[in-house]
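Dear all,

This email documents one entry for the complex benchmark we are building for the journal club exercise. For each entry we list the sequence lines for every component of the assembly. Then comes the predicted three-dimensional structure of the complex as a C-alpha coordinate string, followed by one or two observations. Please use this as the template for your own entries, and keep the labels exactly as they appear.
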Amino acid sequence: MRELTELEGCVLGHVWEKGPCTAYALRQMFLGSASPHWSGSAGAIYPLVQRLARQGLLRARDQATGRRRSKGYVLTPAGFARFLRWLGPPLSEETVGVPMDPLRTRFYFLGALKPEQRAQFLVDAEAKMQDHLARLEKAGRQSEGLYDALANRGSVVMMKARLAWLRGVSEEASK
Amino acid sequence: MRELTELEGCVLGHVWEKGPCTAYALRQMFLGSASPHWSGSAGAIYPLVQRLARQGLLRARDQATGRRRSKGYVLTPAGFARFLRWLGPPLSEETVGVPMDPLRTRFYFLGALKPEQRAQFLVDAEAKMQDHLARLEKAGRQSEGLYDALANRGSVVMMKARLAWLRGVSEEASK
DNA sequence: CCGCTCATGTAACTGGTTACATGATTTA
DNA sequence: TAAATCATGTAACCAGTTACATGAGCGG
Protein backbone atom coordinates (compact mmCIF):
# COMPACT_ATOMS: atom_id res chain seq x y z
CA MET A 1 0.00 0.00 0.00
CA ARG A 2 1.91 3.01 -1.26
CA GLU A 3 2.16 6.34 0.50
CA LEU A 4 -0.25 9.13 -0.24
CA THR A 5 1.09 12.14 -2.10
CA GLU A 6 0.83 15.57 -0.52
CA LEU A 7 -2.04 16.42 -2.80
CA GLU A 8 -3.92 13.26 -1.91
CA GLY A 9 -3.36 13.83 1.80
CA CYS A 10 -4.60 17.39 1.48
CA VAL A 11 -7.70 16.35 -0.37
CA LEU A 12 -8.58 13.72 2.22
CA GLY A 13 -7.89 16.23 4.97
CA HIS A 14 -10.07 18.84 3.37
CA VAL A 15 -12.92 16.41 2.94
CA TRP A 16 -12.49 15.34 6.55
CA GLU A 17 -12.68 18.96 7.64
CA LYS A 18 -15.47 20.26 5.47
CA GLY A 19 -17.64 17.19 4.91
CA PRO A 20 -19.07 16.39 1.47
CA CYS A 21 -17.07 18.16 -1.23
CA THR A 22 -17.29 18.30 -4.99
CA ALA A 23 -14.08 18.01 -6.95
CA TYR A 24 -14.87 21.46 -8.21
CA ALA A 25 -14.89 22.89 -4.69
CA LEU A 26 -11.56 21.24 -3.94
CA ARG A 27 -10.16 22.80 -7.06
CA GLN A 28 -11.36 26.27 -6.15
CA MET A 29 -9.76 25.82 -2.75
CA PHE A 30 -6.36 25.13 -4.28
CA LEU A 31 -6.74 27.85 -6.89
CA GLY A 32 -7.57 30.42 -4.22
CA SER A 33 -4.71 29.44 -1.96
CA ALA A 34 -2.18 32.18 -1.22
CA SER A 35 0.85 29.90 -1.62
CA PRO A 36 1.90 29.52 -5.23
CA HIS A 37 2.61 25.83 -5.09
CA TRP A 38 -0.88 24.40 -5.57
CA SER A 39 -2.03 24.52 -9.15
CA GLY A 40 -5.36 22.79 -8.67
CA SER A 41 -5.67 21.95 -12.33
CA ALA A 42 -8.68 19.92 -13.36
CA GLY A 43 -6.37 17.31 -14.81
CA ALA A 44 -4.94 16.75 -11.35
CA ILE A 45 -8.05 16.83 -9.17
CA TYR A 46 -10.61 14.81 -11.13
CA PRO A 47 -8.40 11.78 -11.77
CA LEU A 48 -7.23 12.01 -8.16
CA VAL A 49 -10.67 11.80 -6.57
CA GLN A 50 -11.63 9.02 -8.96
CA ARG A 51 -8.51 7.16 -7.90
CA LEU A 52 -9.24 7.64 -4.21
CA ALA A 53 -12.84 6.57 -4.72
CA ARG A 54 -11.71 3.45 -6.58
CA GLN A 55 -9.46 2.60 -3.65
CA GLY A 56 -12.36 2.98 -1.25
CA LEU A 57 -10.96 6.02 0.54
CA LEU A 58 -13.66 8.37 -0.72
CA ARG A 59 -17.26 7.60 -1.53
CA ALA A 60 -19.05 9.54 -4.24
CA ARG A 61 -22.73 10.32 -3.96
CA ASP A 62 -24.89 12.03 -6.47
CA GLN A 63 -26.19 15.36 -5.30
CA ALA A 64 -27.41 16.83 -8.55
CA THR A 65 -29.90 19.66 -8.20
CA GLY A 66 -32.24 19.61 -11.18
CA ARG A 67 -30.58 18.72 -14.44
CA ARG A 68 -27.13 19.79 -13.33
CA ARG A 69 -24.87 16.94 -12.36
CA SER A 70 -22.75 17.18 -9.24
CA LYS A 71 -20.86 14.60 -7.21
CA GLY A 72 -20.15 15.05 -3.53
CA TYR A 73 -17.30 13.05 -2.04
CA VAL A 74 -17.22 11.91 1.57
CA LEU A 75 -14.54 10.16 3.58
CA THR A 76 -14.92 6.44 4.27
CA PRO A 77 -13.57 4.92 7.52
CA ALA A 78 -10.71 3.44 5.48
CA GLY A 79 -10.10 6.89 4.00
CA PHE A 80 -9.93 8.45 7.46
CA ALA A 81 -7.49 5.79 8.67
CA ARG A 82 -5.32 6.35 5.63
CA PHE A 83 -5.44 10.09 6.15
CA LEU A 84 -4.27 9.67 9.75
CA ARG A 85 -1.35 7.55 8.62
CA TRP A 86 -0.37 10.21 6.12
CA LEU A 87 -0.66 12.91 8.78
CA GLY A 88 1.62 11.14 11.26
CA PRO A 89 3.19 10.65 13.73
CA PRO A 90 5.66 9.31 12.91
CA LEU A 91 7.02 11.94 10.55
CA SER A 92 9.32 11.09 7.67
CA GLU A 93 12.65 12.71 7.01
CA GLU A 94 11.11 14.33 3.95
CA THR A 95 8.41 15.95 6.05
CA VAL A 96 10.65 17.43 8.72
CA GLY A 97 13.65 18.31 6.53
CA VAL A 98 14.25 21.78 5.09
CA PRO A 99 11.81 22.24 2.25
CA MET A 100 13.44 22.88 -1.06
CA ASP A 101 13.48 26.56 -1.85
CA PRO A 102 14.11 27.77 -5.40
CA LEU A 103 15.36 31.11 -4.12
CA ARG A 104 17.94 29.47 -1.90
CA THR A 105 18.97 27.23 -4.77
CA ARG A 106 19.75 30.26 -6.86
CA PHE A 107 21.89 31.73 -4.12
CA TYR A 108 24.48 29.04 -4.61
CA PHE A 109 25.15 30.53 -8.01
CA LEU A 110 24.95 34.24 -7.29
CA GLY A 111 28.66 34.47 -8.02
CA ALA A 112 27.81 34.01 -11.70
CA LEU A 113 26.22 37.46 -11.86
CA LYS A 114 28.09 40.69 -12.32
CA PRO A 115 27.91 42.91 -9.20
CA GLU A 116 25.34 45.17 -10.81
CA GLN A 117 23.07 42.29 -11.79
CA ARG A 118 23.51 40.75 -8.38
CA ALA A 119 22.37 43.95 -6.69
CA GLN A 120 19.40 43.97 -9.04
CA PHE A 121 18.63 40.37 -8.11
CA LEU A 122 18.57 41.19 -4.40
CA VAL A 123 16.41 44.28 -4.86
CA ASP A 124 13.96 42.35 -7.01
CA ALA A 125 13.81 39.48 -4.53
CA GLU A 126 13.19 41.74 -1.57
CA ALA A 127 10.42 43.71 -3.24
CA LYS A 128 8.57 40.66 -4.47
CA MET A 129 8.95 38.87 -1.18
CA GLN A 130 7.49 41.82 0.67
CA ASP A 131 4.49 41.82 -1.64
CA HIS A 132 4.02 38.15 -1.12
CA LEU A 133 4.33 38.48 2.63
CA ALA A 134 1.64 41.15 2.69
CA ARG A 135 -0.69 38.82 0.79
CA LEU A 136 0.04 35.99 3.19
CA GLU A 137 -0.65 38.18 6.19
CA LYS A 138 -3.93 39.28 4.71
CA ALA A 139 -4.93 35.70 3.99
CA GLY A 140 -3.87 34.68 7.49
CA ARG A 141 -6.30 37.11 9.05
CA GLN A 142 -9.16 35.13 7.56
CA SER A 143 -8.11 31.89 9.24
CA GLU A 144 -10.82 29.59 10.47
CA GLY A 145 -10.00 27.72 13.61
CA LEU A 146 -6.90 27.29 15.70
CA TYR A 147 -4.81 25.02 13.50
CA ASP A 148 -5.65 26.87 10.36
CA ALA A 149 -4.38 30.02 12.03
CA LEU A 150 -1.23 28.32 13.32
CA ALA A 151 -0.43 26.87 9.92
CA ASN A 152 -0.98 30.21 8.22
CA ARG A 153 1.22 31.83 10.80
CA GLY A 154 3.83 29.29 9.76
CA SER A 155 4.00 30.61 6.24
CA VAL A 156 4.25 34.18 7.53
CA VAL A 157 7.04 33.19 9.90
CA MET A 158 8.87 31.46 7.06
CA MET A 159 8.62 34.48 4.79
CA LYS A 160 9.85 36.80 7.52
CA ALA A 161 12.82 34.55 8.22
CA ARG A 162 13.56 34.37 4.50
CA LEU A 163 13.41 38.14 4.24
CA ALA A 164 15.71 38.62 7.24
CA TRP A 165 18.14 36.14 5.70
CA LEU A 166 18.00 37.94 2.37
CA ARG A 167 18.80 41.27 4.02
CA GLY A 168 21.75 39.70 5.77
CA VAL A 169 22.95 38.45 2.43
CA SER A 170 22.47 41.86 0.83
CA GLU A 171 24.67 43.43 3.48
CA GLU A 172 27.31 40.77 3.13
CA ALA A 173 27.26 40.99 -0.66
CA SER A 174 27.52 44.77 -0.84
CA LYS A 175 30.69 44.82 1.22
CA MET B 1 11.82 27.92 -25.50
CA ARG B 2 10.51 26.46 -22.30
CA GLU B 3 11.79 27.26 -18.82
CA LEU B 4 14.45 25.15 -17.20
CA THR B 5 13.43 22.99 -14.27
CA GLU B 6 15.14 23.47 -10.92
CA LEU B 7 17.16 20.34 -11.51
CA GLU B 8 18.29 21.51 -14.93
CA GLY B 9 19.22 24.93 -13.58
CA CYS B 10 21.20 23.34 -10.78
CA VAL B 11 23.06 21.07 -13.13
CA LEU B 12 24.03 23.93 -15.43
CA GLY B 13 25.03 25.97 -12.39
CA HIS B 14 27.16 23.21 -11.01
CA VAL B 15 28.91 22.69 -14.32
CA TRP B 16 29.47 26.43 -14.54
CA GLU B 17 31.03 26.42 -11.08
CA LYS B 18 33.13 23.30 -11.21
CA GLY B 19 34.04 23.03 -14.86
CA PRO B 20 33.92 19.68 -16.69
CA CYS B 21 31.67 17.26 -14.83
CA THR B 22 30.63 13.69 -15.39
CA ALA B 23 27.00 12.81 -14.90
CA TYR B 24 28.21 10.51 -12.19
CA ALA B 25 29.83 13.38 -10.29
CA LEU B 26 26.64 15.43 -10.55
CA ARG B 27 24.75 12.49 -9.15
CA GLN B 28 27.08 12.08 -6.18
CA MET B 29 26.67 15.76 -5.47
CA PHE B 30 22.90 15.46 -5.22
CA LEU B 31 23.09 12.21 -3.27
CA GLY B 32 25.44 13.76 -0.73
CA SER B 33 23.39 16.91 -0.27
CA ALA B 34 22.09 17.51 3.24
CA SER B 35 18.63 18.56 2.13
CA PRO B 36 16.33 15.61 1.49
CA HIS B 37 14.74 16.94 -1.64
CA TRP B 38 17.32 15.94 -4.22
CA SER B 39 17.17 12.30 -5.12
CA GLY B 40 19.86 12.30 -7.77
CA SER B 41 18.67 9.06 -9.26
CA ALA B 42 20.49 7.84 -12.34
CA GLY B 43 17.18 7.82 -14.18
CA ALA B 44 16.95 11.56 -13.64
CA ILE B 45 20.49 12.71 -14.27
CA TYR B 46 21.55 10.76 -17.35
CA PRO B 47 18.55 11.58 -19.50
CA LEU B 48 18.78 15.17 -18.26
CA VAL B 49 22.34 15.76 -19.38
CA GLN B 50 21.64 14.03 -22.69
CA ARG B 51 18.68 16.36 -23.14
CA LEU B 52 20.74 19.45 -22.34
CA ALA B 53 23.51 18.28 -24.66
CA ARG B 54 21.01 17.71 -27.46
CA GLN B 55 19.76 21.28 -26.96
CA GLY B 56 23.29 22.60 -27.23
CA LEU B 57 23.48 23.81 -23.63
CA LEU B 58 26.12 21.29 -22.61
CA ARG B 59 28.85 19.76 -24.71
CA ALA B 60 30.07 16.25 -24.00
CA ARG B 61 33.66 15.31 -24.49
CA ASP B 62 35.23 11.96 -24.07
CA GLN B 63 37.69 11.80 -21.24
CA ALA B 64 38.08 8.08 -20.84
CA THR B 65 41.21 7.00 -19.03
CA GLY B 66 42.29 3.61 -20.32
CA ARG B 67 39.47 1.26 -21.10
CA ARG B 68 36.99 2.96 -18.79
CA ARG B 69 34.51 5.20 -20.51
CA SER B 70 33.74 8.59 -19.03
CA LYS B 71 32.05 11.65 -20.43
CA GLY B 72 32.79 15.13 -19.17
CA TYR B 73 30.22 17.83 -19.78
CA VAL B 74 31.07 21.48 -20.20
CA LEU B 75 28.87 24.53 -20.55
CA THR B 76 28.43 26.07 -23.99
CA PRO B 77 27.92 29.84 -24.38
CA ALA B 78 24.25 29.13 -25.09
CA GLY B 79 24.14 27.02 -21.95
CA PHE B 80 25.60 29.82 -19.88
CA ALA B 81 23.11 32.33 -21.29
CA ARG B 82 20.26 29.96 -20.54
CA PHE B 83 21.56 29.41 -17.03
CA LEU B 84 21.65 33.15 -16.40
CA ARG B 85 18.07 33.48 -17.55
CA TRP B 86 17.04 30.72 -15.17
CA LEU B 87 18.95 32.37 -12.34
CA GLY B 88 17.30 35.76 -12.77
CA PRO B 89 16.60 38.60 -12.23
CA PRO B 90 13.72 38.89 -12.75
CA LEU B 91 12.40 36.36 -10.28
CA SER B 92 9.13 34.56 -10.76
CA GLU B 93 6.33 34.41 -8.22
CA GLU B 94 7.10 30.73 -7.78
CA THR B 95 10.69 31.49 -6.87
CA VAL B 96 10.00 34.15 -4.26
CA GLY B 97 6.78 32.72 -2.79
CA VAL B 98 6.68 30.59 0.36
CA PRO B 99 8.03 27.21 -0.53
CA MET B 100 5.60 24.41 0.02
CA ASP B 101 6.28 22.68 3.31
CA PRO B 102 4.83 19.23 4.04
CA LEU B 103 5.06 19.85 7.77
CA ARG B 104 3.05 23.05 7.53
CA THR B 105 0.53 21.29 5.33
CA ARG B 106 -0.06 18.73 8.05
CA PHE B 107 -0.64 21.44 10.61
CA TYR B 108 -3.87 22.44 8.93
CA PHE B 109 -5.23 19.07 9.96
CA LEU B 110 -3.81 18.68 13.44
CA GLY B 111 -7.33 18.96 14.79
CA ALA B 112 -7.97 15.46 13.47
CA LEU B 113 -5.66 13.94 16.07
CA LYS B 114 -6.62 13.13 19.62
CA PRO B 115 -4.77 15.35 22.13
CA GLU B 116 -2.40 12.57 23.06
CA GLN B 117 -1.48 11.82 19.45
CA ARG B 118 -1.13 15.51 18.76
CA ALA B 119 1.35 15.88 21.62
CA GLN B 120 3.23 12.91 20.19
CA PHE B 121 3.26 14.53 16.78
CA LEU B 122 4.80 17.70 18.16
CA VAL B 123 7.43 15.87 20.18
CA ASP B 124 8.36 13.74 17.17
CA ALA B 125 8.57 16.77 14.90
CA GLU B 126 10.77 18.71 17.29
CA ALA B 127 13.21 15.86 17.85
CA LYS B 128 13.63 15.07 14.19
CA MET B 129 13.94 18.71 13.24
CA GLN B 130 16.69 19.21 15.78
CA ASP B 131 18.59 16.25 14.34
CA HIS B 132 18.18 17.62 10.88
CA LEU B 133 19.29 21.08 11.95
CA ALA B 134 22.44 19.65 13.48
CA ARG B 135 23.25 17.91 10.21
CA LEU B 136 22.65 21.11 8.25
CA GLU B 137 24.91 23.10 10.57
CA LYS B 138 27.64 20.55 10.20
CA ALA B 139 27.32 20.58 6.42
CA GLY B 140 27.28 24.37 6.45
CA ARG B 141 30.68 24.49 8.12
CA GLN B 142 32.21 22.89 5.03
CA SER B 143 30.94 25.58 2.70
CA GLU B 144 33.18 26.62 -0.13
CA GLY B 145 33.04 30.25 -1.04
CA LEU B 146 30.85 33.15 -0.01
CA TYR B 147 27.60 32.31 -1.76
CA ASP B 148 27.77 28.67 -0.89
CA ALA B 149 28.06 29.70 2.75
CA LEU B 150 25.22 32.21 2.49
CA ALA B 151 22.93 29.68 0.85
CA ASN B 152 23.75 27.06 3.44
CA ARG B 153 23.09 29.60 6.15
CA GLY B 154 19.71 30.03 4.52
CA SER B 155 18.68 26.47 5.19
CA VAL B 156 19.87 26.75 8.79
CA VAL B 157 17.92 29.97 9.25
CA MET B 158 14.82 28.32 7.79
CA MET B 159 15.08 25.34 10.09
CA LYS B 160 15.56 27.55 13.13
CA ALA B 161 12.52 29.61 12.21
CA ARG B 162 10.52 26.45 11.65
CA LEU B 163 11.59 25.12 15.03
CA ALA B 164 10.68 28.37 16.78
CA TRP B 165 7.31 28.30 15.07
CA LEU B 166 6.77 24.71 16.11
CA ARG B 167 7.53 25.52 19.74
CA GLY B 168 5.06 28.37 19.64
CA VAL B 169 2.47 25.97 18.31
CA SER B 170 3.29 23.43 21.01
CA GLU B 171 2.64 26.03 23.68
CA GLU B 172 -0.58 27.15 22.07
CA ALA B 173 -1.76 23.57 21.62
CA SER B 174 -1.01 22.44 25.15
CA LYS B 175 -3.18 25.14 26.66
C1' DC C 1 -29.05 35.93 -26.45
C1' DC C 2 -24.30 36.51 -24.84
C1' DG C 3 -21.06 35.68 -21.67
C1' DC C 4 -19.79 34.15 -17.08
C1' DT C 5 -19.63 30.75 -13.55
C1' DC C 6 -20.69 25.97 -12.10
C1' DA C 7 -19.30 21.39 -12.94
C1' DT C 8 -17.14 17.33 -14.94
C1' DG C 9 -14.07 15.35 -17.37
C1' DT C 10 -10.24 13.57 -21.21
C1' DA C 11 -5.73 13.57 -23.99
C1' DA C 12 -1.07 14.35 -24.71
C1' DC C 13 2.94 15.24 -22.53
C1' DT C 14 6.82 15.54 -19.23
C1' DG C 15 10.02 15.32 -15.51
C1' DG C 16 11.23 12.51 -12.13
C1' DT C 17 11.02 7.80 -9.49
C1' DT C 18 12.42 2.92 -8.67
C1' DA C 19 14.56 -0.90 -10.30
C1' DC C 20 17.40 -3.19 -13.35
C1' DA C 21 21.58 -4.10 -16.32
C1' DT C 22 26.42 -3.81 -17.68
C1' DG C 23 31.25 -3.58 -17.38
C1' DA C 24 35.89 -1.50 -15.73
C1' DT C 25 38.80 -0.43 -11.81
C1' DT C 26 40.35 -0.33 -7.16
C1' DT C 27 40.98 -2.19 -2.57
C1' DA C 28 40.83 -5.46 1.24
C1' DT D 1 39.73 -13.13 -5.99
C1' DA D 2 35.77 -11.12 -4.04
C1' DA D 3 33.56 -6.97 -2.88
C1' DA D 4 33.06 -2.23 -3.28
C1' DT D 5 33.12 1.72 -6.13
C1' DC D 6 33.36 4.15 -10.64
C1' DA D 7 30.61 5.00 -14.55
C1' DT D 8 26.89 4.76 -17.90
C1' DG D 9 22.73 3.87 -19.11
C1' DT D 10 17.51 1.80 -20.04
C1' DA D 11 12.52 0.44 -18.95
C1' DA D 12 8.32 0.79 -16.67
C1' DC D 13 5.74 3.70 -14.21
C1' DC D 14 3.37 7.76 -12.12
C1' DA D 15 1.64 12.20 -10.59
C1' DG D 16 0.76 16.44 -12.14
C1' DT D 17 0.71 20.04 -16.14
C1' DT D 18 -1.50 22.40 -20.05
C1' DA D 19 -4.99 22.49 -23.14
C1' DC D 20 -9.18 21.04 -24.80
C1' DA D 21 -14.24 19.64 -24.72
C1' DT D 22 -18.94 19.54 -23.01
C1' DG D 23 -23.04 21.18 -21.08
C1' DA D 24 -26.29 23.37 -17.44
C1' DG D 25 -27.78 27.59 -15.11
C1' DC D 26 -27.82 32.54 -14.38
C1' DG D 27 -27.38 37.67 -14.78
C1' DG D 28 -27.39 41.70 -17.69
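Observations: The first strand of chain B starts at residue 58 and ends at 62. The CA atoms of residues 1 and 154 of chain B lie 31 Å apart.
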